[in-house]
Amino acid sequence: MLYSLQSKYLSSYKSAMLLYDKNNKKEFEKRLFFSIVFAIVAFVIILSRLWHLQILQGKKFKSLSENNRIRIVKIPAPRGIIFDRKGRVLVDNYPSFDLSIIPEDINDPERAIKELSGLLNVKAELFKAKLKEHRDNPPFKPIKVKTNLDYREVAIVETNKLDLSGITIEIEPKRLYVFDKLAAHLIGYVGKISASQLKTRGSDGYNMLDLIGKCGIEHDYESVLRGSNGGAQVEVDAVGRKVRVLRELEPNPGENIFLTIELDIQKLAEKALADMIGTVIVMDPNNGDILALASSPSFNPNMFSLGISSKEWEALVTNPYNPLANKAIQGQYPPGSVYKIITAIAGLEEKVITPETIFYCDGSYKFGRRTYRCWQKKGHGRVNLHRALVESCDVYFYQVGQKLGVDRIAHYSSLFGLGKPTGMSLLNEKSGLVPTRLWKRRAFGSPWQDGETLSVAIGQGFVLVTPLQILNLISSLANGGALYRPQIVKKIESIGGDIIKEFFPERIKKIPVSDNSFSLIKDALWGVVNESRGTGWGARIEGADVAGKTGTAQVVGLPKGSSNEYVPFEYRDHAWFTAFAPKDKPKVAIVVLLEHGGHGGNKAARIAKEIMKEALKILNSDSASF
Questions:
Q1: Which of 238, 269, 585, 598 lies at a 20 to 30 A Cα distance from 123?
Q2: Phi (first) and psi of residue 214, to 5 degrees
């Protein structure tokens, strides 16, 4: 019986052990499975992380690692030099000492900035603001905190360099505009690249702190002037001090540009404008070369090169006379009586008048229900074409305009390039406006009124021009009908003096106007300056045979009998004078526009006289030297 019980117990025990082993094996297999899955997942994660760090971001971390010991230092390329037509330097470069901080090399930024602030007598907040502005930069990249250190400041920093870890002085070429404001609107200026410019030109190798041309020649010829930067691999010690240069790539300076402007004539133009508001442009009418271009008020581009302050910028942008605008190509004005040249040519070519056609002027002309006044209150009497231009009779041209209609006047305006940009290679040139019947219908949804043609015929109403367009008009008249594209660049040279590109006169077209019409108008414009009743007598130069035309452009309608002398400045008429000389073999053409300058025969004509007188001497001297 005991044996039987033992047998049953052993049998039960074996069954229990078999069940336990079976359950234990399943649990073991389950745990083993999860362990393998976990190991595989962990391995995949580690492998993907290694792939991400070593493959995707390998270059970045290699750069970070190398920069613990080796720094890549940019060597900026000097921009190309800008000369006048005779090779005199207008824009150059000079070495600027700039103070930079390398965040990675500073152990105690707060103490370093405080010490640096005390040494240079600069508010610590200014340094902190610069660091905050560039806080997203890699820590080994220098951050410029002060530019254009003088020699005393450089000496102070260098003397205390052992105690100023992470502080470094970099030497960079900066732009020097040799004559300050001279030709500022033509030459332009450079400034720190903007975020929008960086977005469009980042692929060209620009970085956030780079300088770039903002307007004028500096902007339009940026790719020519810029050059290509160099660089150096520099080994540094634990505190960022240079140990040795491992490798260096020299920068390639930008190419040099020779402008068409003549420095001495440009100085004359700038001096003549002085504190007035307006522009003076001088051109060679035989090829379109711009000899001078001055716009006033002006600005000093060196302010931007040195780093313009917020106060200086505020003064520029809030100035009501907009010193940053190039009035020569961006100012749009009614041309006043200068436009009578167009009306006269249209009248002759369309045969609505002859040189002998007479109109009577008693000081006003009644058309419909309105009376149109002549500037000469007592009238001019019986007037033919020659006298109408010489004395600038409004009544004569009211009647010529009435016979022509606005569309025929517009046609001859467009022949001389009015109503569209001249194509001069400067940014934001305006087109002006030559009105037509169709234009008014599209612009205002209303029909053209015949009375509006009378205003257009004397350069008032809707018509608008730029001073450069008027200069093109007088130049093409002077040379017998050739319309040239205005040129401001003569040639581009390498730093070694090799000519890379030369610019030649670009004749747009021969204006389809008869030689007889040109001859009649030129004779009349000679009379404007040289005959006793001519409105441009103030520009007369003995022996120079100046031919020109005055213009007075109304800014607002004034009551009858009003005098500019008693009208607020901003409501006074604009003054025009445009001329060329000598009449038969012209060497120089000029336009003077004075905003709110009154009658064109006064200040504007006298300014033109002084510039032309000296310009002819300079040009004659140049001719004699060849």
A1: 238
A2: -105, -30
Q: In Å, how far from its chain's centre is CA 354?
A: 45
C-alpha closest to that of 288 among 112, 103, 472, 556: 472
- Which phi and psi angles does 524 have, rounded to 5°? -65, -40
The CATH number of whichever domain residue 203 belongs to comes to: 3.90.1310.10
Dump pLDDT digits (tens) for 282-323: 999 999 999 999 999 999 999 988 778 888 989 999 999 999
DSSP 440-488: HHHHHSSPPPHHHHHHHHTT-TT-BB-HHHHHHHHHHHHTTSEEEPPB-
In a domain, 303, yes or no: no
- The Cα 233–Cα 63 span in angstroms is 12
Mean pLDDT of 90-97: 92
Same domain membership, residue 433 and residue 552: yes
Same domain, 188 and 279: no
DSSP string covering 337-359:
GGGHHHHHHHHHHTTS--TT--E
Answer whether residue 448 is part of any domain: yes
Q: Cβ contacts of residue 16 below 8 Å, gap of 6+?
A: none
Query: Shortest CA distance to 508 belongs to which of 539, 532, 487?
Result: 487
CB 79 within 8 A of CB 221: no
User: How far apart are alpha carbons 310 and 267 in whole angstroms?
Assistant: 30
Q: How far apart are CA 104 and CA 140, in angstroms?
A: 5
pTM of the full structure: 0.83
Q: Would residue 386 be called left, alpha or beta, if left means φ above 0 and alpha means ψ between -120 and 50 degrees?
A: alpha
Residues 398-436 have pLDDT tens digits of: 999 999 999 999 999 999 999 999 999 888 999 999 999
Question: Same structural domain for residues 452 and 601?
Answer: yes
- 400 closest CA partner among 355, 343, 456: 343
- What was the pLDDT predicted at 14? 54
Pair (120, 158) in one structural domain: yes
Query: 285 — alpha (psi -120 to 50), left (phi > 0) or beta?
Result: alpha
pLDDT digit string, tens, across residues 255-273: 999 999 999 999 999 999 9
Q: Which residues are part of the catalytic machinery?
A: 337
Average pLDDT score over residue span 177-188: 96
pLDDT at residue number 3: 46
Helix (H), strand (E), coil (C) string for 479-527? CCCEEECCECEEEEECCCCCEEEECCCCEEEECCCCHHHHHHHHHHHHH
Alpha-helical (H) ranges within 160-283 are 184-187, 195-201, 216-220, 222-226, 263-273
* Nearest alpha-carbon partner for 284 in 619, 625, 624: 619
Q: Which domain holds residue 602?
A: 272-287+329-487+498-625
The reported pLDDT for the residue numbered 13 is 46
